[in-house]
Request: fold
Amino acid sequence: MSETTYHLERDLKEAEAMAKALTPYVHEDQLYGAVGRSGFFSAAKMPSLTLGALLMRLRRLEVLQDRLNADQRLRLRNVVKRHDEVFREWNVHYKQKLVYEAKSRLKAMHQFFDECNDNPKSCASIYPPEVLRRTIVQEILIAMTEIDLQDDELTQLVRETDSRLQRAANAKHSFIWADELQPVYPEKPFWWLYRIPQPVE
Reply:
């Protein structure tokens, strides 16, 4: 999934498909769920379902909702309603999965840091997926604040990961995603979207 181009309708369709698949996903063990197994969208065309991936789309659409037409706004309200229903019904499972996803994504970034250390020339080219990974974690952290959910281990893992990420992405840059998304992602706290690894000659 590339965030260097952005389409509201695509985000909305993906959010609709993810919300539709939230049950039974939220109370199952796997981190990544499949969506769009039938109908117009096949599983191959859709991103994997995670709570963080859905939350990212929902917040983007809400921030940018003045760009939605009346029908799109109604569809967005239905997605939010569905998400909220699942959250209430499966509250304990939802919270556990939210924290688990954040930790898993942060731990997965360790491979990026190792590769940058081993081959600094490759660091810039492999940076984009890590930006998305860290952004989804931030969306989870925002959601956790809203529902008053805390996890000390996650807080420490964020601190450690960001310290390494700051060393890897050591050059300031203009916003690296599509311009349409910049209102959603101010430099604070989304600083990694305004930095890149310094190219190595």
User: Anything to note?
Assistant: The chain is about 55% helix and 0% strand. The mean pLDDT is 92. The two ends are 28 Å apart (CA to CA). Strands lie at 171-172, 195-196.
